[in-house]
């Protein structure tokens, strides 16, 4: 990676590397200085944790604490990338990439739950899924690892393409193509182009899975793809097609025809949208030669990310559904459909907040959700935030009883209202991350 070792020795074993994330600094790491972060905060962490080594500009080298080896470098981001690429070449693994407007994290967790039974896998952590975080995963690879499982997110064009140029996935999936990030990309066509980057960034001879039921996915071109293209779906003909999709008390069950035989699968979460995620996971696992029983076991035991349709048992029989990690219109409509389907004659309350990053499509998107909400037999529709007011307004315009629609811009007032919901209610929460609806849920967990 270059640079000059000006203090310490090169004989200590470094377990991982860290670029500017002093909050996550560990003593067995090599730390790379970040000019975008406060140096005082970085230095405070270095003095407290004392990692094995630190890579810093020359003018900061004298301020580092004793016991920390010091490497100076003129281009620290370049040094970090060189180390990551060196480690990737040292530990050759197969690469699986997952992208899509919704369901990336859930699909990634489903895949990992299956693969971990047999393959040592390094995977994306949380929502750290853009090009910026890719080196950290390359640096986690160690001898004996078999596979790198990457969730590929983006907030601009060329982000997925840059990731693919580095790792060249052998297996890939696009869960769907919808409206998420349309504000930052500017148009729905730009979103299609962004997801197209995975199709064109695959390694020749690879295997690609696409959603046969998603209108946006049908706009993806595979003309230049040099590999095996497979589809998954529920409604339209597909290579992997779910049948007999049913809701249960613990999640969903469905059947899939594999190798001429029908097999049953179950997942511990609800909704047809999660069946699509499971189908993508099944396809990827089969392409990696996993048996049906291994896939069944992995899906049944998957631990899904928090705040993705996370069911919390409240007091007086209430059930709180925390689906508030983030929101776009397709995901919010899917969540409302699940709420309706799992109600079992219990009162249903939908708490819907602002959907952000939609740009000029914002009003249209909130109206679409309102139109969908009007079709469902909700006990209450509660909106939170100025943008979300359009959801309630549109629902009433489409026939929903105005006495069942409530709007709040103040969190405390929202909490006071929700404390009056009927016993046995199912309360569903969905909004963009910045609204922090989990803080509302925390106040309602012990509602009597």
TrEMBL record:
It holds the Pfam family Mur_ligase_M. Its main location: cytoplasm. One of its GO terms (molecular function) is UDP-N-acetylmuramoylalanyl-D-glutamyl-2,6-diaminopimelate-D-alanyl-D-alanine ligase activity. The keyword ATP-binding applies. Pathway: Cell wall biogenesis; peptidoglycan biosynthesis. Keywords: ATP-binding, Cell cycle, Cell division, Cell shape, Cell wall biogenesis/degradation, Ligase, Nucleotide-binding, Peptidoglycan synthesis. GO terms for biological process: cell division; cell wall organization; peptidoglycan biosynthetic process; regulation of cell shape. It is found in: Cytoplasm. Residues 307-433 form the Mur ligase C-terminal domain. One of its GO terms (cellular component) is cytoplasm. Gene3D superfamilies: Mur ligase, C-terminal domain, Mur-like, catalytic domain. It catalyses: D-alanyl-D-alanine + UDP-N-acetyl-alpha-D-muramoyl-L-alanyl-gamma-D-glutamyl-meso-2,6-diaminopimelate + ATP = UDP-N-acetyl-alpha-D-muramoyl-L-alanyl-gamma-D-glutamyl-meso-2,6-diaminopimeloyl-D-alanyl-D-alanine + ADP + phosphate + H(+). This is UDP-N-acetylmuramoyl-tripeptide--D-alanyl-D-alanine ligase. It comes from Paludifilum halophilum.
């Amino acid at each position: 990676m270059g640079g000059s070792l000006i203090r310490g020795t090169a004989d200590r074993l470094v377990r991982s590397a860290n670029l500017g994330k002093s909050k996550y600094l560990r003593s067995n790491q090599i730390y790379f200085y970040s000019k975008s972060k406060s140096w005082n905060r970085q230095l405070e962490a270095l003095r407290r944790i004392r990692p094995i080594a630190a890579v810093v500009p020359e003018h900061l080298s004298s301020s580092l604490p004793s016991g920390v080896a010091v490497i100076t470098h003129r281009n620290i981001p370049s040094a970090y990338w060189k180390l990551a690429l060196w480690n990737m070449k040292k530990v050759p693994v197969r690469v699986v990439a997952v992208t899509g407007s919704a369901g990336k994290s859930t699909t990634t967790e489903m895949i990992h739950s299956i693969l971990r039974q047999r393959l040592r896998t390094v995977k994306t952590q949380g929502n750290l899924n853009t090009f910026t975080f890719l080196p950290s995963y390359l640096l986690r690879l160690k001898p004996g690892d078999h596979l790198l499982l990457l969730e590929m997110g983006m907030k601009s064009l060329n982000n997925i393409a840059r990731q693919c140029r580095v790792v060249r996935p052998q297996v890939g999936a696009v869960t769907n193509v919808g409206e998420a990030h349309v504000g930052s990309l500017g148009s729905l066509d730009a979103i299609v182009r962004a997801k197209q980057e995975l199709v064109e960034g695959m390694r020749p001879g690879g295997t690609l899975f696409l959603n046969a039921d998603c209108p946006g996915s049908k706009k993806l071109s595979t003309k230049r793809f040099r590999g095996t293209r497979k589809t998954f779906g529920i409604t339209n003909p597909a290579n992997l097609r779910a049948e007999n999709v049913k809701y249960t008390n613990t999640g969903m069950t469905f059947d899939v025809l594999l190798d001429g035989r029908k097999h049953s699968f179950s997942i511990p979460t609800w909704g047809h949208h999660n069946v699509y995620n499971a189908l993508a996971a099944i396809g990827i696992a089969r392409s990696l030669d996993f048996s049906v029983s291994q896939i069944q076991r992995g899906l049944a035991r998957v631990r899904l990310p928090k705040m993705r349709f996370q069911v919390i048992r409240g007091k007086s029989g209430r059930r709180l559904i925390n689906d508030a990690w983030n929101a776009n219109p397709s995901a919010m409509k899917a969540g409302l459909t699940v709420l309706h389907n799992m109600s079992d004659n219990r009162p249903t309350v939908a708490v819907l907040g602002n959907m952000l990053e939609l740009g000029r499509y914002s009003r249209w998107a909130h109206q679409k959700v309102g139109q969908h909400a009007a079709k469902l037999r909700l006990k209450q529709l509660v909106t939170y935030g100025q943008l979300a007011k359009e959801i309630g307004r549109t629902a009433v315009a489409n026939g929903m009883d105005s006495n069942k629609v409530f709007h709040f811009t103040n969190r405390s007032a929202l909490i006071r209202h929700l404390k009056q919901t009927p016993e046995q209610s199912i309360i569903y929460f969905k909004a963009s991350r910045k609204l922090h609806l989990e803080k509302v849920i925390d106040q309602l967990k012990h509602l009597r």
